[in-house]
């Protein structure tokens, strides 16, 4: 129990000598499992839970049923994530190169790295210690992977430099040619050579089937701690600051720059060459066509400040109701 409370960043109120074997939701967790509560709407489930311990805020600790230990923390969801990681740690590399893997000439693979079945490591690539390269993953020529990166099955990487602990989930595509072309007088298109790279900072995560295009002249850069959800598109020369979040099916067009800790919600679309300020938040399905100031919240298409959007929505609703009464 002491180790669990320490991992959660809090203290336990109850029997501190109990042992636990795992984690689970309030509704199904048993006496040897740890659960959590961070929303008052689930108080009825808390009162009926059989969980042996619950990670929760101080103000709700008196609601736990008899026999359940309260683990009091400032941030229950974060605390529970750290507890869950105690029971389900990320797998460590099993050093070695599978006999079916293909290693190109001049590639450097750390003896502490794991290279899975049918993986391909291109010529001159560098694979750092503790990296895990999954089955059928492809690492392009000259790519550099820092320590403890994980490239999941069928992901591909080219023209890229990765920091420490970068994760590419299955099917992610990083470093491919950006969408750049020049029209010709006779109506054809000629591809503009894409000469830049992708730079992924420490602990960046790229979701399944997400795409990050390499730069056209300069580089595409994702700052440390940035996370892309599944099916996200990042265009060439996009740059993000630290800790940005881009949620599923959102797209960011070329050369747009995000400050630190920007959040882009699902299916939002950002046009190119924009400046999005630090800690700005872009709502779901927003169409962003202009710069967004730091710490602003915008939504709608075209995107506008959140309060303005809801005022407009309310007016349109009243107008529709009024029109309906006159027909």
TrEMBL record:
Function: Catalyzes the N-acylation of UDP-3-O-acylglucosamine using 3-hydroxyacyl-ACP as the acyl donor. Is involved in the biosynthesis of lipid A, a phosphorylated glycolipid that anchors the lipopolysaccharide to the outer membrane of the cell.
Keyword terms: Acyltransferase, Lipid A biosynthesis, Lipid biosynthesis, Lipid metabolism, Repeat, Transferase
Active site residues of this protein: 236
Name of the protein: UDP-3-O-acylglucosamine N-acyltransferase
PROSITE patterns: HEXAPEP_TRANSFERASES
Superkingdom to which the source organism belongs: Bacteria
Residue span(s) of domain UDP-3-O-[3-hydroxymyristoyl] glucosamine N-acyltransferase non-repeat region: 22-86
Pfam families on file: GMPPB_C (PF25087), LpxD (PF04613)
């Amino acid at each position: 129990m002491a180790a669990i409370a320490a991992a959660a960043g809090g203290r336990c109120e109850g029997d501190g000598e109990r042992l636990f074997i795992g984690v689970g939701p309030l509704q199904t967790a048993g006496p040897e499992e740890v659960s959590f509560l961070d929303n008052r709407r689930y108080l009825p489930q808390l009162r009926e839970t059989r969980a042996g311990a619950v990670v929760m805020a101080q103000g709700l600790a008196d609601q736990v049923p008899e026999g359940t230990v309260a683990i009091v923390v400032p941030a229950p969801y974060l605390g529970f994530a750290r507890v869950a990681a105690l029971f389900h740690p990320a797998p460590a590399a099993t050093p070695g190169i599978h006999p079916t893997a293909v290693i190109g000439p001049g590639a450097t693979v750390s003896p502490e790295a794991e290279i899975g079945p049918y993986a391909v490591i291109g010529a001159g690539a560098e694979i750092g210690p503790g990296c895990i390269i999954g089955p059928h993953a492809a690492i392009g020529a000259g790519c550099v992977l820092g320590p403890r990166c994980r490239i999941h099955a069928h992901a591909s990487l080219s023209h890229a430099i990765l920091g420490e602990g970068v994760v590419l989930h299955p099917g992610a595509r990083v470093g491919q040619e950006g969408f750049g072309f020049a029209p010709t007088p006779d109506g054809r298109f000629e591809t503009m050579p894409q000469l830049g790279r992708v730079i992924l900072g420490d602990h960046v995560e790229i979701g399944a089937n997400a795409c990050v295009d390499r730069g056209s002249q300069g580089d595409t850069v994702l700052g440390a701690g940035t996370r892309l959800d599944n099916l996200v598109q990042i265009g060439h020369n996009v740059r993000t600051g630290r800790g940005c979040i881009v949620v599923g099916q959102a797209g960011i067009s070329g050369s747009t720059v995000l400050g630190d800790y920007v959040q882009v919600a699902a299916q939002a679309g950002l046009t190119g060459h924009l400046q999005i300020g630090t800690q700005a938040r872009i709502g779901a399905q927003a169409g962003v066509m202009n710069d967004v100031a730091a710490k602003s919240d915008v939504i709608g298409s075209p995107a506008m400040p959140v309060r303005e959007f809801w005022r407009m929505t309310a007016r349109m609703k009243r107008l529709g109701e009024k029109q309906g009464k006159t027909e």
